[in-house]
């Protein structure tokens, strides 16, 4: 029966080519716009570390001091931590793994004679950063916690920097000139760039794009005078040279907690720590938060407003296209009342008529999906030429490819429901009489 | 033209009528809000900077030792001034549409209880204010004594110029001259009001707060270095900037020339609004596609109606209706349906605007967008219906006598 309906539908679609083209084109435009914006939205709101994200947590404190008027930060907790608190929590070692971090723009000077110095994205962090975030090493390894405390001048560099400076050779043991100081390379990463760059949220303005170039132990980088990209001060006496004692927040702390029990235990520890600080007279309030990776990204609305707006707009457009398709399909099927009357008189059931028209709508949907896929590729090509951090990442993956056809089929079948129902309730007798 | 027979006919096609009206309503809602978004972005693209953009460029240097800053300033200022065609070179920490180095919250009292707002401090050396081309509308421009050396972010006590919109915000309706404000414990006194001076990042600020800037005079030194403002004739500015790059390579090999940050102000302006321009392009594209799809929908449905009513049209023609009458009938019918859609669409437009206001920083949709949207949709409807209606008018009266 399906083959027969298919044949009937194709015949009917061929009979009115202009109307069919209009329907397919309108639906394809709506689908193309929707898939383009959804691909970008999915890309930007994706899970940066799918295998690990449920175990990673971001603690927050309110370091506002007791002797100051009430905090201006409002209901939301400050994004970052002061050096004192971050180090206290780091040294407490209450989590399986923990690392503090800050971003810094660093000057890299190639050793070659004619090498011009250039700026690169740097991360100042502590030993657990690499195992906690599953950063993959091509050569060597990260540093140990002892190296943090002894302020070793060591560095882990990204693969692309290794390619640029050493032609991709194993550079472990060689030195690299960062901010006019010598650092010994102890590890080279494979290409590694989680999207979004969750660990740098609020630490630098870059939430998407290429990975960082150099990773240095926080204490030695600070001893060499490197400054974090983001410093927020909540009291007088802030000075970039003495950030460790200043009333400033400039560090992010991440902890790895493998189970929900561990997470609730850590939350308790965090609460106790804050209360202790209130008792000591350091803090005004003892409020704390512990968010897992995905809720942290979600709460901080890492996806740009424009992208969400575009997705909403595209859905509105698809809705209009679907309503349009309903209208055109309805016109088509009502015009064929007589044909339906004949089929009904010859014994076709209402269900058969319904199925026939749904198949016709489905064909329009599949055609719209194929053409819509073309529009989506065109749209993504346009996005890749936009001046956005995430531009180069915009590609259609297999799941979105399949999703295109799901959207196309579902929207066309929804559009087909009303016309098909109208078609199957046509009373055969008057139609035959008119003929 | 009688409306009653049209309404009677429409009542027999309730479903199709509702569909067209619904499509018009959705189009109206999206159209009004998309136009409003476009208008907001376009206003941003045309923000008044208050500075002579076409005559200005900036050179940004980084990577030098702090202890060399004073020496670097001297070398760069002298070196760049020797470039032919250069009118002036001065030091300025933040650059309109460029580097942002002085964003801070100010208070109107020393105790820090009365918050004034987050503003941009432009800390500039001698000559930078004239180079920018700022207009002092009341009070005075900085004098020689106002430029002092300082340590840290900016001078801790200074006589400053503020923009008119900031003055209006801080002290509405009163003369801002002689007023004081504080940044933490640092104290500033207003001695002049300037017409406009846009923030380095106007995209991130709403309304008048794009223009909340303060000019702080200061002497170049360890803490004011590496960020230079170049002024030349607009015809020469690109060439002067190219020459500046080669000169810097010679006179300051120890510093890194920031390629991204060192541009003419016109280029920086273009760069900083690129995202907004892309968004405007996308919105215009959506509107065009939307109107096209809506028009095609109307064409399709009306064509169907015309085909269905061929015989009735023939009868009407046979009993005396002119072609104009038939044309009029379909036009009026379309006008009625579109009007119904627009009424529904205005409600939807407001609902959509409320939703957008809740999730994005967007003002309320001004009422005048609704009649404009209505006019566009009426026009669109009439245009779309014209083709099928003309075909209807061309139906010959003889059709009435045929049986099919």
What does this structure look like?
The complex is a heterodimer of chains A (435) and B (404). Chain A has 435 residues and is an alpha+beta fold. Chain A has helices at 2-15, 17-44, 83-92, 129-132, 145-149, 159-166, 218-223, 260-280, 293-299, 305-335, 337-345, 350-384, 398-424, 428-434, and strands at residues 56-61, 97-109, 118-125, 137-140, 154-157, 175-178, 181-189, 214-217, 232-233, 248-249, 252-256, 288-292. In chain A, helix 11 (337-345) packs across helix 14 (428-434). The two termini of chain A are 27 Å apart. The model of chain A has no long low-confidence stretch (mean pLDDT 88). Chain B folds into two domains: 4-45 and 275-401, no CATH class; 64-254, no CATH class. Chain B has helices at residues 4-12, 14-45, 69-81, 128-132, 164-170, 237-251, 265-272, 274-308, 310-318, 323-359, 369-393; strands at residues 56-62, 86-91, 103-107, 115-124, 136-139, 157-163, 180-183, 186-194, 213-217, 227-232, 256-257. In chain B, strand 7 (180-183) and strand 8 (186-194) form a beta hairpin. At the A-B interface, helix 2 and helix 10 of A face helix 2, helix 8 and helix 10 of B.
């Amino acid at each position: 029966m399906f083959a027969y309906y298919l044949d009937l539908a194709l015949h009917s679609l061929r009979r009115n080519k202009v109307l069919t083209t209009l329907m397919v084109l309108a639906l394809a435009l709506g689908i193309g716009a929707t898939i383009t914006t959804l691909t970008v939205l999915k890309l930007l709101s994706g899970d940066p570390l799918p295998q690990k994200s449920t175990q990673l947590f971001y603690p927050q404190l309110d370091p506002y001091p007791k002797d100051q008027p009430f905090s201006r930060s409002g209901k939301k907790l400050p994004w970052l931590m002061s050096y004192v608190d971050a180090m206290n929590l780091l040294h407490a070692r209450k989590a399986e793994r923990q690392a503090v971090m800050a971003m810094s723009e660093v000057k890299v000077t190639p050793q070659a004679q004619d090498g011009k110095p250039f700026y690169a994205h740097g991360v100042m962090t502590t030993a657990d950063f690499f195992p906690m975030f599953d950063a993959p090493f091509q050569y060597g390894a990260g540093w140990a916690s002892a190296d943090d405390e002894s302020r070793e001048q060591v560095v882990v560099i990204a693969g692309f920097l290794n390619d640029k400076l050493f032609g991709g050779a194993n550079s472990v043991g060689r030195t690299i000139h960062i901010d006019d100081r010598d650092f010994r390379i102890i590890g080279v990463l494979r290409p590694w760039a989680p999207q979004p760059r969750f660990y740098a949220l609020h630490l630098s303005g870059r939430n998407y794009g290429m990975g960082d170039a150099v990773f240095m132990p926080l204490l030695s980088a600070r001893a060499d005078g490197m400054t974090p990209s983001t410093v927020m001060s909540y009291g007088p006496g802030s000075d970039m040279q003495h950030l460790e004692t200043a009333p400033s927040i400039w560090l992010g702390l991440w902890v790895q907690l493998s189970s929900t029990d561990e997470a609730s235990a850590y939350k308790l520890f965090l609460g106790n720590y804050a209360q202790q600080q209130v008792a000591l007279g350091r803090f005004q309030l003892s409020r704390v938060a512990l968010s897992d990776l995905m809720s942290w990204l979600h709460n901080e609305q890492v996806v740009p407003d424009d992208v969400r707006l575009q997705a909403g707009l595209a859905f509105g457009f698809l809705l209009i296209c679907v309503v349009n398709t309903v209208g055109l399909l309805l016109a088509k099927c009502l015009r064929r009342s007589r044909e339906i009357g004949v089929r009904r008189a010859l014994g076709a059931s209402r269900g058969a008529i319904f199925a026939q028209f749904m198949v016709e709508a489905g064909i329009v949907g599949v055609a719209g999906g194929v053409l819509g896929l073309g529009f989506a590729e065109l749209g993504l090509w346009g996005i890749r030429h936009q001046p956005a951090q995430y531009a180069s990442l915009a590609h259609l993956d297999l799941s979105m490819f399949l999703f295109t056809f799901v959207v196309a089929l579902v929207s066309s079948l929804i559009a087909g429901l009303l016309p098909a129902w109208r078609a199957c309730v046509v009373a055969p007798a008057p139609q035959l009489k008119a003929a | 033209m009688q409306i009653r027979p049209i309404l009677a006919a429409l009542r027999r096609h309730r479903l199709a009528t509702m569909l067209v009206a619904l499509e018009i309503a959705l189009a109206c809602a999206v159209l009004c809000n998309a136009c409003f978004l476009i208008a907001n972005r376009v206003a941003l693209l045309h923000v008044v900077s208050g500075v002579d953009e076409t005559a200005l460029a900036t050179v940004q240097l980084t990577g030098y030792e702090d202890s060399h800053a004073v020496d670097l300033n001297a070398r760069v200022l002298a070196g760049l001034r020797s470039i032919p065609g250069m009118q002036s070179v001065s030091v300025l920490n933040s650059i309109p549409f460029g580097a942002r180095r002085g964003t801070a919250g100010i208070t109107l009292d020393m105790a820090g209880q009365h918050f004034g707002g987050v503003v941009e401090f432009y800390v500039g050396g001698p000559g930078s204010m004239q180079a920018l081309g700022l207009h002092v509308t009341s009070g005075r421009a900085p004098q020689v004594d106002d430029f002092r050396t300082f340590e840290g972010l900016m001078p801790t006590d200074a006589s400053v110029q503020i923009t008119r919109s900031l003055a209006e915000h801080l002290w509405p309706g009163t003369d801002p001259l002689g007023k004081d404000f504080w940044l933490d414990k640092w104290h500033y006194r207003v001695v002049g009001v300037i017409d406009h001076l846009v923030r380095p990042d106007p995209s991130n600020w709403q309304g008048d707060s794009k223009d909340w800037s303060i000019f702080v005079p200061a002497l170049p030194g360890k803490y004011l270095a590496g960020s230079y403002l170049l002024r030349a004739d607009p015809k020469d500015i690109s060439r002067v900037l190219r020459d500046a790059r080669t000169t810097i390579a010679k006179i300051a090999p120890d510093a890194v020339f920031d390629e991204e940050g060192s541009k003419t102000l016109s280029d920086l302006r273009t760069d900083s609004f690129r995202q907004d321009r892309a968004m405007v392009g996308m919105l215009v594209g959506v509107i065009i596609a939307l109107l096209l799809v809506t028009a095609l929908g109307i064409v399709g449905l009306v064509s169907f109606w015309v085909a269905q009513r061929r015989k009735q049209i023939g009868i009407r023609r046979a009993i005396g209706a002119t072609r104009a009458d038939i044309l009029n009938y379909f036009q009026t019918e379309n006008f009625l349906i579109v009007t119904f859609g627009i009424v529904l669409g205005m409600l939807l437009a407001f609902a959509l605007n409320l939703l957008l206001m809740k999730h994005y920083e967007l003002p309320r949709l001004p009422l005048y967008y609704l009649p404009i949207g209505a006019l566009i949709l009426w026009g669109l409807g009439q245009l779309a219906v014209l083709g099928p209606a003309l075909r209807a008018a061309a139906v010959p009266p003889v059709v009435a006598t045929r049986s099919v």
